Amino acid sequence: MKAYTKAxxxxxxxxxxxxxxxxxxxxxxxxxxxxxxADPEAERTVLEARARHTGHTGDKxxxxxxxxxxxxxxxxxxxxxxxxxRDSNGNEIDVAKSLWTTYKGCSDAYRxxxxxxxxxxxxxxxxxxxxLPERFEVEESLHYDDRSDDERHRHAADKWGEWKVALxxxxxxxxxxxxxxxxxxxxxVDNGTVTKAGKRFVEAVETLEKESE
Length: 213
What we know:
By secondary structure, this protein is mainly alpha-helical.
């Protein structure tokens, strides 16, 4: 085998065509939030984009609601935004907020189960709106998760199991609407107007909330 001298290797390297620099990955987590906060127009831009997507023409600050960052929340608030009901004790309940809490609890448990127990993830094929820049804070009550893999696996499975019981109880029709929303299948909102699929989804979440109470 022919041996090449160091000088020959250097000449060969210089003869190669120039290569473009590898693009830097976008900052994530705290670094990304710091980048957004450094831009005074970042929040306004995101709020306006979200408002256009939801067909909202009023106060843009209402778009700060994290539920309006995805189609499921947009559908819920389009149907029940501003609606109030009273519980058995006479306390006022924000219907949209309550339904969003129910859906988010189910969705989070499902995603955590897929990630921890199955090693999979939910890949939504619909467009997602950029998260608003927010302060990075940790509550004092939070602590480092020192559970073993088995403990985290068991907790994720148990939590999802509770929601799965409720989903099975509301029937295949309703549960399929919720699964579709969690996977990003179908269009729930079209330029601020709730689609038929969106209305079926909201009705399914209403049923799930009653079952999970």
